[in-house]
Write a structure and sequence with these properties.
The chain is 56% helix and 14% strand. The protein is α+β, with helices and mostly antiparallel strands and 177 residues long.
């Protein structure tokens, strides 16, 4: 069962996995099993992300958009590096890059260290598209935040450092996304 607040889907504890086990009765919250919190957080973040993607009606599909962000943050990159970072096969990444190249969103250049290789960088148009997507998604999220009461906004503000820490990738110590 979902509670509705201002039209936004809010996962109730019942949907997320039973009683609200994320609030311990006694003791240090760090000693508690994080599984119930992980289940609720995953559900809420996933649903919110999906809602923003749907409301955003972006012209760039999710994998292409994710690839653009990766190229922006980590580029220039080879196709194999992009495939690994995006957790797809090289043939899949090749198709993604072809589509991005056809739209003028990326630039392919010869790898100076290996003339057989190609490096992918973000084009000016690609940077513009990312900026537009981010601005639009930020506006959508800001509209949802305006529905919350001040205490909820304060709680989210306080939780941001912890949420940002969750972005650190265990494998390389770098932020992802």
């Amino acid at each position: 069962m979902n509670a509705m607040r201002g039209g936004a889907d809010v996962a109730s504890p019942e949907v997320a996995g039973g009683m609200d086990e994320t609030r311990p009765a006694d003791g240090d919250p760090a000693d508690e099993d994080p599984t119930p919190l992980a289940a609720r957080l995953g559900l809420v973040v996933g649903r919110l992300n999906r809602r923003i993607r749907i409301d955003g009606r972006q012209s760039v599909p999710p994998l292409q958009l994710s690839t653009l962000v990766t190229v922006e943050q980590k580029g220039p990159l080879r196709l194999s590096d992009l495939a690994r970072r995006e957790a797809v096969t090289a043939p899949t990444m090749s198709r993604v890059l072809t589509a991005l190249d056809e739209q003028g969103l990326v630039v392919r250049t010869v790898d100076p260290d290996d003339a057989r290789g190609v490096l992918i960088t973000l084009s000016d148009k690609g940077a513009e598209v990312l900026s537009e997507v981010r601005n639009h998604r930020t506006a959508l999220l800001a509209r949802r935040l305006r529905r919350l009461d001040p205490a909820q906004v304060a709680a989210l503000t306080e939780a941001l450092p912890a949420l940002e820490a969750l972005l650190v990738d265990d494998s390389d110590g770098n932020a992802t996304g």
